[in-house]
Amino acid sequence: MTTPQRDYLTTRELAELLRVKERKIYDLAAAGEVPCRRITGKLLFPRQEIEAWIGGNAGATAKPDPAPIVAGSHDPLLDWALREAGTGLGGFFDGSLDGIERLADGGAVMTGMHVFEGPAGWNLGLVRDRFAGRPLVVLRWAKRRQGLIVPQGSDIARVVDLKGRLVSLRQATAGSRLLFDHFSAQAGLGLGDFSILGEVRTETEAATDVASGRADAAFGLEAVARQYDLGFVPLIEEEFDLLVQQKAYFLPACQSLWAFCRSRRFTEKATEFGGYDVSGLGEVRWVGS
């Protein structure tokens, strides 16, 4: 009996078909040079498109334009600016790591990130490893003060004071969660030392949990703590960057955002939010090939 062919090839199967090493297949996929899909984190290759690609059908490798979405970490100032600038871009903010994968798969034109990399700094190590050879650019958005959001008058003054307290936690793909885990480890604490209210998806949801009395603390932005008239324990000034498709950078949607960010209104709003340093906004931090 003939075994029916599956609609998708695995990385190993495509490597065997092309008689190359699997590493070469990953390189081709990262550069967008071979038809592929990322499904639940796994690379799969549509058989019909691969056969057309091997046969020299150039059209088979043409990739659709990225979705007009800004993904990644939720930043209140960016969220506001996208609307006020009339960019027409939608927002899907589900964490720094989620946004990086969405952009890689064509699900976004831009993603916000604040991934702490220890002494190496912020964001760039991950981008270099994930997107070597891709036509992308990393631009500075802002430096932001992160710390503990607590009720006014709270006795929580350090991370170690969270032991046994009820904490509103960000999801695992969020840059804020990575930072919280880092500071918790420094304090000798793990998730088992807190009472976890649950995982929330945005900075504002975390602050709302504290403001409503459902949580004793959350890890988040000074800007959001001020918005809800909450106390704030500063822990770090982080670097929030935007990873942008190079082609999209020059299109009207993105250009309208950059133009708006040069306005007095934008600068005044950043000051009103508090906890932001936008003096380096637009600085080019990394350029892919």
Automatic annotation (TrEMBL):
Cited InterPro entries: DNA-bd_dom_put_sf, HTH_17, PBP_domain, SinI_DNA-bd
Domain PBP, residue spans: 86-261
Molecular functions per Gene Ontology: DNA binding
UniProt-listed SUPFAM superfamilies: Periplasmic binding protein-like II, Putative DNA-binding domain
Residue ranges constituting the Helix-turn-helix domain according to the UniProt record: 8-55
NCBIfam families referenced in this protein's UniProt entry, alphabetically: excise
PANTHER family, alphabetized: BLL2305 PROTEIN
Name of this chain's protein: Periplasmic molybdate-binding protein/domain
